[in-house]
Design a protein that fits this description.
The chain is built from 9 helices and 14 strands. It is of the alpha+beta class. The N terminus is likely disordered.
């Protein structure tokens, strides 16, 4: 699949004449909405993803989104921009924001040890909250528990009221095993990585289920300081340690660092914050380019599906 992404980029560039077409003057760029649709259509037609949604916001313009492909292959349901998908590890930035919200409310401190908030002795009891924010999945699972302990309500309840609804994310939900799921697409994977060889993945009922448009709302609310102070946002985005970007971005990323629930660096020469979220049957990416004032959200209802359009979409929105 990862080799396919490069081939897809070349095919898409050729199909578009890379910014020029028969109905455009030489050197004139295609409208970004049309470009995004062409890129997504190429991936879906090539059998790399059952469906794709791309949402973006450019400076001084309203957000725009395109949805291509199928929400459910068996039922022949068309994917729309209102379909939600599980966003996997993209949840980490919501967990980090919830922790910082409690810290700013003087209900806990970053220097507090995990043991203060109960929980089993699992090797993390003596770890500070700040160090947990640098960690991986187990650390963020513990941070969710800490939010529940301090807030006196479930993480889903606290984050829904103070983060999702505060950001205007009315089409997204933090679901538990018994919770209501929004209108969401069916997830798939490609058998042995073969194009068009889709197999259904069992439904995952927990975690954050979001639309691409709602993810853009989250970027705006978080990074514009509507939910947290700018000092707290800086803690999340100013990567505190060196990292290594995944192979999907390795060729176009410089100065990669790991923040709290986010990655940072320069993508195609532009300062960027981002996170990828993988869930069984789904692939999600969320980017913010602070200097260019551009946001991009990609959702696919196929594992590694958004990965196949990653570089061409980034080049398209950044005009690189």
């Amino acid at each position: 699949m990862r080799d396919t992404g490069r081939t897809l980029f070349q095919r898409t560039a050729s199909a578009m004449g890379w910014w020029t077409g028969s109905d455009h003057a030489a050197g004139e760029r295609m409208p970004l909405h049309d470009t995004a649709a062409t890129i997504a259509e190429t991936a879906v037609a090539g059998g790399y993803s059952a469906g794709l949604v791309a949402a973006f916001r450019l400076p001084i313009r309203s957000p725009s989104a395109v949805a291509i492909g199928s929400a459910d292959l068996e039922q022949d349901l068309t994917l729309t921009v209102d379909h939600s998908c599980p966003v996997g590890s993209c949840l980490r930035q919501f967990i980090a924001a919830a922790i910082l919200l409690l810290v700013e409310g003087n209900r806990m401190r970053l220097t507090d040890r995990a043991i203060r908030f109960g929980g089993a002795e699992d090797g993390l009891a003596g770890t500070s909250v700040q160090d947990l924010l640098h960690g991986g999945r187990d650390c963020y699972d513990r941070l969710e528990q800490i939010v529940t302990h301090v807030a006196g309500e479930s993480f889903a309840q606290f984050a829904t009221t103070n983060l999702l609804l505060a950001a205007g994310m009315t089409q997204s939900v933090l679901a538990d095993a018994e919770g209501f799921l929004p209108r969401r697409a069916t997830g798939y994977r490609l058998t042995a990585g073969r194009a068009h060889a889709f197999e259904t993945v069992a439904e995952i009922g927990t975690g954050l289920h979001a639309t691409a448009g709602d993810l853009l709302l989250w970027n705006r609310a978080l990074l514009n300081g509507r939910l947290l102070t700018h000092a707290a946002v800086d803690l999340m985005t100013n990567g505190s340690r060196e990292g290594t970007p995944g192979p999907e971005l390795a060729s176009i990323v410089e100065r990669h660092r790991l923040g709290w629930g986010l990655e940072s660096g320069r993508i195609l020469g532009h300062r960027a914050f981002w996170q990828r979220g993988e869930a069984p049957g789904f692939d999600a990416w969320l980017f913010h380019f602070p200097d260019a004032r551009i946001d991009l959200a990609l959702l696919a209802n196929t594992e590694q599906g958004a990965e196949t359009i990653l570089e061409p979409m980034l080049r398209a929105v950044l005009r690189a």
